[in-house]
């Protein structure tokens, strides 16, 4: 194991550690880092790195820049003042940190994943693994199989495929060819993941190279190899999907072939056409194509004035979704959609990561609530708790220190960076709409966003509808029926952490302005019945720092409750009003206290109850997960 600058590179288990916390790296960036670390101090040219990691395969040098950028984020490295990876302009990279050797296991001694001596077992995916093994068994009998593994970012698609390729596939001797779609490469490098998969296949199988040379020579030329002498120029200059389909079927004749295409939502049109052709061919083939498909909100190509760009390939209406629906309808593929981990499954994940048989009381519930069952989020939250000292390991095992409520106020840095990167793919208008929506909580109505931004409600609904179609973390939730009889769509953040990051990325002055506008709009919507939404208005005025109006709205509501003889409600509202009044300067505070005193001593009057809006749509949990369809009334905000 190699140590540098607080990090440990475990080459045996192919993982990176920062102190006691594991840093999640995809396979290719890990191999780039490993090669740089194993050759410290000297210039590693682009060609050397490409030849070492992609032998006999043509790969565009730009892919290295993508992986190095990912490594810099994982290492916290600054390209301007590098501590680890220094860029040598137009030539390559140099690893500049001091390397020390240490014994395996010493790096992560008391941290997450400590003592792991083998590839970690998958957690909570028994049903999905069984389905993959069944598909492989069918493929081994000559029944070609196309399987999509889908799910949100961090749900564990790659982990499932890794476990299946390294463990499940051992039950049936197979050849594995694996390619990775890279975001943004589809337009510049057609068939990129296919070329990567073929390069690895030819490297591990001389027979595969011979078949390609005879049946699909143009694809061999794409790998940087010479075509067969007998091949006609047309055959080795045009990469035709049919030729490759025939070649792959022949390669799989002796031993089943497992072709893995990861992150197909970023795949180019040619790769999708090849996938479609492989699924539709009628001939028997010992072939299993496994395509992982995640969400995508990045926009392809350059935007023109007034355009929002193309939809991400993992969104509704995208080429991948259209292909998948078509194949499913024709029963030419199956889809394995990964759901969030259940609470007991997440506890098993924590036991694996913490290398312990006992989880501290309350930890599983806290992590499950915060992560909503997303494995990547759960691990990042656990790492954050360890790094911040909320979770410590002593002689008697792990223990929670301090208050987890305090920890809940923080978003793990790694997740915040991931979410921020997703925001970069959105227009300024879309980012503002989401930022304004985050003020309302998990569910946000379009009218509130329009009020905060000072924009037209119809225009805001169009923006939010576009977001719900394109991005994976916002969904349409239903519609609000407002007091004037009009209707307004409302939307839902599918994960609370997205809402928190969006809220915190807004400047404090802007948040205050937006909260104030929403409070005013609530008053306008309920003109004559303002007391029905007094609590909601006071919360917005409190967030805006307008303590006078926050106190006044609560006093109005308390007076209204007293008229209805709602004693408990009066006490609660008066208590809140007194708390707000403490923030006022002396003259205004004295006036507010007098108003509260008058409410307490005044006799009750007639009932004057307001009516909250009725919301039609999907009932939501606190986290925003959809439960079922029914009508419910829960206030205007």
Task: Provide a quick synopsis of the model.
With 637 residues, the protein is of the alpha+beta class.
As for the CATH topology of the largest domain, it is Rossmann fold
Q: Categorize the overall geometry.
A: elongated
Instruction: Specify the oligomeric state.
Output: single chain
Spatial strand order of the main sheet: 4-3-2-1-8
**DSSP summary: helix tally:** 26
For the record, give the distance between the C-alpha atoms at the N and C termini, rounded to a whole number.
54 Å
Largest sheet: 5 strands, antiparallel
CA-based gyration radius: 29 Å
Percentage of residues in DSSP E strands:
5-15%
Tell me what the structure shows.
The chain is an alpha+beta fold and 637 residues long. It folds into 4 domains: 2-101, Winged helix-like DNA-binding domain superfamily/Winged helix DNA-binding domain (Arc Repressor Mutant, subunit A); 126-337, Rossmann fold (3-Layer(aba) Sandwich); 343-411; 417-601, Orthogonal Bundle (Arc Repressor Mutant, subunit A), CATH 1.10.10. Helix content is 46%, strand content 15%. It contains 26 helices and 20 strands. The strands form 5 sheets. Strands 4-3-2-1-8 form a 5-stranded antiparallel beta sheet. Helix 6 (192-204) packs across helix 7, helix 11 (269-280) runs parallel beside helix 12 (319-329) and helix 14 crosses helix 15. It is elongated and about 95 Å long. It starts with a strand and ends in a 5-residue tail after the last strand. The relative contact order is 0.07. Residues 104-111, 114-119, 297-316 and 605-637 have low confidence and may be disordered.
